[in-house]
Amino acid sequence: MKKIMITGALGQIGTELVVKCRALYGNDNVLATDIREPEADSAIANGPFEILDVTDKTRMYELVESFKPDTFMHMAALLSATAEKNPLFAWDLNMGGLMNALEAAREFNLQFFTPSSIGAFGPSTPKVNTPQVTIQRPTSMYGVNKVAGELLCQYYFEKFNVDTRSVRFPGLISHIKEPGGGTTDYAVDIYFKAVREGRYASFIDKNTFMDMKYMEDAIDAIIQLMEADGVKLINRNAYNLSAMSIEPEMVKEAIQEYYPEFELDYEVDSVRQAIADSWPNSIDVSCARAEWGFNPQYDLNKMTKVMLEAIEDKEKVQS
Ligand code: AKB
What we know:
By secondary structure, this protein is an alpha/beta fold. It folds into two domains: 4-124 and 132-171, 3-Layer(aba) Sandwich (Rossmann fold), CATH 3.40.50.720; 174-212 and 242-318, Rossmann fold. 44% of the residues lie in helices and 15% in strands. The chain contains eleven helices and 14 strands. It has helices spanning 12-25, 57-67, 80-85, 87-108, 141-160, 186-196, 215-227, 248-256, 270-278, 286-292, 300-318; strands at residues 4-7, 30-34, 49-51, 71-74, 111-113, 116-117, 164-165, 167-169, 171-173, 199-202, 210-214, 239-240, 244-246, 263-266. The strands form four sheets. Strands 3-2-1-4-5-7 form a six-stranded parallel sheet, with helices on both faces. A three-stranded parallel sheet has the order 6-8-12. 2-amino-3-ketobutyric acid (AKB) is lined by residues 79-80, 117-119, 142, 169-171, 182-184.
């Protein structure tokens, strides 16, 4: 049985990760933390919660000392587009928070997880079937943070024997919590707009392929990796993960199976398009499959059905 402390618990991944971990390991064994209070009716409020600014090392240590976790999942970070608008703040938050979290893991002997991203790749990385080990020269601040984070995970494992584990997440698609500030967010927005308005203007251009994954598969992957036998894990920096390589017209066609009148047009955002153009089209996930059994269940069509039905249900409750 694990006892887990999670930062960034109110973020896109954190929200669902906390719920899944509480279901698996018990409500009282999962401490959710974030910089702001959860809504009173949110699922996060059903178990232990503490306010934490991850750049505040003293407060982070106090919480670790009082909660006594054996596992630390560090999810708090700025996403790519937001980081690009404020790169110095991104460095302070993404790297400052990560260093505090890694240090807590080292000092208190905690198993450690933090996500990397396809953002850790750049324009000189092979674009198709991007290998696990390859050129990593990203051109965004987010990417710089992610490469440094991967190297730090590897370093803490080799130098201090911290049980660090990580994945390179693609765009994550969920109906529970809408993301904020990511380059891949169009692939979430499009579903909400399809149900609510029957049309969407994408800020990412057609023919821009990026890797994506349904959130349930992403959460399952975190749990599976954290439960895996450490002896079998060769890559301690971060594992490539993806379930589909898609571009906006493909999502449109999948949505039109259910909403034939759905219309997609484009209002391309130059900052996010430049980031997307610097990322791979599709990445190779064979190491994650071989070393710890990564096996996503959702492809584009299955995910589209679930997304549309769930958003329709949400709309009914709200109307
Ligand atoms: C983003 O778009 O910034 C994230 C990511 C792929 O890391 N969703």
